[in-house]
Amino acid sequence: MDFNTLFQAQNVTDQYDSSEVSQLQVSTILAYIFPFLFFLPKVKNGNSQYANFIGNQTITMFVGYVISVILMKLPIIGFLGSILSIVIFILAILGIIDAVNGGVRKLPIIHQVTIQAFK
To answer: Rounded to two decimals, what is the model's pTM?
Structure first.
């Protein structure tokens, strides 16, 4: 895995239908604000590659939040959970900004993870 690729937010807007992106804009924003709603874009348009892409990114964020909460409860290494939580928060903001602007980006770090249900 290339270090530069890991932290690069690759613009992939041209890989998805713009009408699909605009149709799922509200559910995408909600999924980034509340990652436990990762299924929302898929429910709204189940056959969509874009919905799968957003679902994959937001479920990865949700799992990251759960891990950060668990880490924060542990003595000595609890600060790692706080750092992870802040990183995920920043990634969520990046996702929201892209969704509001009608763009699509592979968010840094989490775009490397693929959840089988959203493939």
So the answer is: 0.84
